[in-house]
Design brief:
Layout: E1 17-20, E2 23-29, E3 38-40, E4 46-49, E5 52-54, E6 59-63, E7 69-72, E8 80-87, E9 95-100, E10 104-111, E11 117-120, E12 125-135, E13 155-160, E14 165-179, E15 185-193, H1 194-200, E16 204-206
Parallel strand pairs: 8-14
Antiparallel strand pairs: 1-2, 1-16, 2-6, 3-4, 5-6, 7-8, 9-10, 9-13, 10-12, 11-12, 12-15, 13-14, 14-15
Length: 213
């Protein structure tokens, strides 16, 4: 998904299909654009114009004909869709995945036990975010800033029904890596939980595969 006027300046990933009443939206990261910006897909087809933004929580809604599925797999290689069956509040110790347009599906992140996270970029700060970590010896040593790479806005989710379905957990703000004094590397995702989005916009819900609108 591309940002204003189809440019690649704000390349991001489409998140969950949502709705408030009968009006459907695509949920993505707030730093991907501003209210009034026109978003397109990779082929240049217009998705819609952003209508609602909560800058502090890094959330953005785009009115469009959203659906009850998300993309998964490796983009352009083995990508496919999975059905979304509602959402749930995140909790410490929960195992989560995300699926981005650049890096594809990534799982094995454990929600950290602690306070909410604040993350700042060049000209913005986002609050009430949640952090989840996985330890790996194969992650890059370079810090990945949250507004680059194309995975911002990606759906963060838990798996259910033998991994055939997903339950919405949040919207990706950024991915970065850390190393401890022993050189053990960990990869972190920082995201806004879906429950916060429902508080910011009362009535917001996922488009449920089992009960689509």
């Amino acid at each position: 998904m591309c940002g204003p006027s189809g440019t690649s300046v704000y390349d991001c990933t489409a998140g969950f299909g949502t709705h408030i009443g009968s009006v459907k939206y695509l949920l993505t990261a707030g730093h991907c654009g501003s209210v009034g910006d026109t978003f397109t897909d990779g082929g240049g087809t217009v998705i819609g114009q952003a209508s609602n933004k909560h800058a502090e929580h890094d959330l953005l809604l785009i009115p469009t004909d959203a659906q009850s599925r998300i993309w998964d797999g490796i983009p352009g290689v083995s990508d496919f869709t999975k059905p979304v069956v509602g959402w749930g509040w995140t909790f410490p110790g929960q195992s989560l995945c995300y699926s981005g347009a650049m890096r594809g599906a990534n799982c094995g992140y454990t929600v950290a036990d602690g306070e909410y996270t604040k993350l700042c970029g060049e000209d913005s700060c986002w609050t009430d975010l949640i952090a989840a970590k996985r330890r790996s010896q194969n992650v890059t040593t370079a810090k990945q800033v949250p507004w680059s790479g194309g995975d911002s806005g990606a759906p963060v989710f838990s798996l259910t029904n033998d991994s055939a379905w997903v339950q919405a957990a949040g919207t990706l703000t950024g991915v970065f890596t850390t190393s401890d004094w022993l050189g053990n590397r960990s990869e972190w995702i920082v995201f806004q939980d879906f429950g916060t989005a429902t508080r910011d916009w009362p009535g917001l819900d996922t488009i449920n595969y089992l009960d689509p609108i």
